Amino acid sequence: MASLDTTTFRNFASRRALWIECLSGKDRNSIIQQTYRMIWDAAAFRVVNEARKIASADVETGLKVSGLLHGLLDRSFFAAQMSAIRRITDPSSPFEGKKGVWSLTALLKDMATHTHLFTREHLLEASGHVYDYIEIERRFTEWLATSHDCEYIPAELVSDHSSDRHKQIDVLLISV
Fold first, then answer.
1. Predicted structure pTM score
2. Does residue 121 carry a pLDDT above 70?
3. In what helix (H) or strand (E) does residue 57 lie, and over which residues does it extend?
């Protein structure tokens, strides 16, 4: 394997950190936080609808709660959900900058713009895995032949995580 190009890797690592923050960060505008709010609002709306079903009826006006209130709740909920869906799928805004929007579409566009940074080496290095796990397996075999302590395996001699990550990347490449 050729040595890792550190400049390109740093570019990938910084983009990857931004993508992860966009997708699953604590910022209220991250995609996961937006999704959580949509799900929470949908659950709350279902609770309100169940309460409507069991609300006691007033002989003259139907439900004891105002029909005007129910209409407002319905319109507001559906308008908010439509706005949230529009925001999370916004295709027109940039990914970064003053007018940047964290949306699935913007995230995917940015990742597509930076596909040249996606290499097996970068993916492994960024996630803390080694590229050459065969060398680790060789050292493990040597250690096993000389060691009598089979209950403890040094972490630097465990290749399973790197091997698994290679297999995951292979599956992704096959599906492309």
1. 0.74
2. yes
3. strand 57-58
